[in-house]
Amino acid sequence: MKGRGVIALVLFGFVCIAAGVIWRRSTGIARARAESGLEQRRAALRAERTKLEGDIRDASSRAALARVAEDRLHMRIPNDSQVIVLSRSSVPVVRAANDPSSRAR
Fold first, then answer.
1. CB-based contact 28:34 (threshold 8 Å)
2. Tens of pLDDT along 34-86?
3. In Å, how far from its chain's centre is CA 53?
4. Cα separations (Å) of 53 from 39, 46, 88?
């Protein structure tokens, strides 16, 4: 009986170890699949971010903003005859010390 008990105990131990190995491998495979899915999701999000940054760059370009200003705000580029250039006087304006507009705010 002693020999059979030892053999049964060894077989039971072998079955437990084999079950543990199988469980660990199946858990590892499941985690690897989940990690692979997350990596694919990350790559997709990076691609989407790059696309959105390009869209932002295109939408904020000078040509796109000019088109929006013309369409939505009814603005347009003036003709040369409609432009008035104001020149600054080269003589500085001196204000009196008691002038309220010259005081610091």
1. no
2. 999 999 999 999 999 999 999 999 998 988 888 888 888 888 888 888 888 88
3. 8
4. 21, 10, 41
